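Forwarding these from the shared drive since the link keeps breaking.
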Amino acid sequence: MHLGYYIHLHGSGHARRAKAISQHFDLPVTFIGTGVSQHNWEGVANYQLLDLPPDKIEYVPKLPINQNCQTHSFHYAPYYAATYRQRAVKIANWVEQKQPTAIIVDVSAEITQFLRFLGVPVIGVRQHGERSDLPHVCGYDAAYKLFATYPQLLEVPQTPNWIKAKTIYAPGFSRYSERCLTKSAARAELNISPQQQVVLVLNGRGGNCHSLTKIAAVASVTPDWLWLIVGETDKEGGSLPHNLCSLGWCEDTYLYLKAADVAIASGGNNTVMEIGTARIPFLCIPEFRPFDEQKIKAKILERLGLCLVANTFPDGNTIKTLLARLKTLDVSKWNEIMAVDGAARAAKAIELEIKLLDSYLR
């Protein structure tokens, strides 16, 4: 048995998820995708890498017929793009050489359909969002099984029954799932008083998520709260209020999550699951993503009482009310979503399907 694992190149979340699950596989796996060799796969016992040429728009010839490359069944299918052709050839050659039992695809409707033509069963990863467009439906239809890295409690309400029927649901998990730290221990390590109220602002890379100026403004009107910013910000425009500390980029945010009373963050999958691991309420400010992925996920979490949702970073007139409301949220629902062994259970569920497929070949 051999498993392939295709990883979308956008962001680090797909690779991080692949690593968390694959650490629990008992079978060999090949990670496939652009830039897979640049990720750290430490902890995965038996793996190989198949690095693909990029599929970015800048590699597509600027021809009139490439002005609009979406078809009814594909999100993007350019003409005469050498790197796209090379990707397909490399994947096909690898399939011929390895003859994998199945391939997990996280994520691509086009790759899923291509692999189906090659006769390879695909386990397609599902994400939140409005994905009733034909390319997504074609990809879901072509997949042997679908895989959601969240329990059915977080399912999008309008999802068709046939999609839910072929979906393997896993408990929520994050890279911090197996770690254990109390709030008091986290605060002791950070030298924060047990009585201090703490807001954690999680910024992504690039400093374009929540500006330091806006955060400083709301910190100034909430002197009884300590504000911590983890992540990159724009350049400091002046002196910061005494209750605001910008910590810069931090690869491991677990300590700060456990020390916080509330968080302010986007609706990205890894961010949400890490907040869920910490069991703290948060103000979700969804970032733009195709198919409204973060907005729809945020609405589901808000309906469950796990977060509040805002379109933009709050101003000084609303922040006090929001912080007071956040502190009243009952986050016990996270216990029905998250699991310490969530990644291991996801891997086991996938391996059961692989073993069933392998039995057909014997």
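-- next protein --
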Amino acid sequence: MTDTLPDPAAGSSLRPAIGGIFWSLLRADFTVLLHSGRTLLLNVALPVLILIITNLHGSTSTGPLGFSRVGFDIGLALTYGLMSSSLIGYSLTVARDREAGVFQRLRVTPAPTWAIMASRLLVQVIADLIMTVVVVLVGMIIHATFFSFGQIFLLVCVSIGGGAMFLAIAQAIVGLVRSAAVVNALGRVFYVIFLLLGLLGSSGLLGTEVKAVSDWSPVGAMISLYSAVVDLSPWGWSETSAIIATAGYILVGAFVGIRWFRWETH
């Protein structure tokens, strides 16, 4: 009798395909998102509410920071949605799942570690795009205006960049801090700082030095880009600096978030 050795190729064929694994992760993360009332509130309901509230001022044509009223209102609502869903929603969800041992259980499955995080990030980006479309449609109805296909496309591109920026910042917070409670507190603190710095600082009320800093802040960069797209303003240094700032936040946040991220709390 001769012994037969297992065929390595046949053994490897029993492993689940990476495409199937990634699709299963996406379905699971989408299910969690759809059943999360807090996430849906942060992603869609509150940005639309802010858009409605900012329209209660009347029919003035100029916004607080020198932008058009339409550009400022839509830019603020979209920026709020991207920032809150990432700094408060995404970061807290990841931190809580880490404390609950979800990531430890996922790591013993055939799913690669990059696929686990990529699935969550992709779901968040898709949610941001849905929010962008909803806010833009509501904004056009409220302000009785119409955006061309090119403007809508550019708004979506800005949202992708802004979503990536705030997700990178949120990932950095989760990477540096392991406690879900501290992550939640820091996310809210950074949210308030970014919002106040972007709005009050850009207005010049806090001085020229603070205004210079606020122009490079996440909120200041996003409102500048959104308003430029809505207003179809000529390209200038303000838009260039906003793109540079956005790219810088993405690179630094992603590096910190990946380099120091821990899959467990111990």
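The radius of gyration is 21 Å. Residues 1-14 have pLDDT under 50 and may be disordered.

- D.
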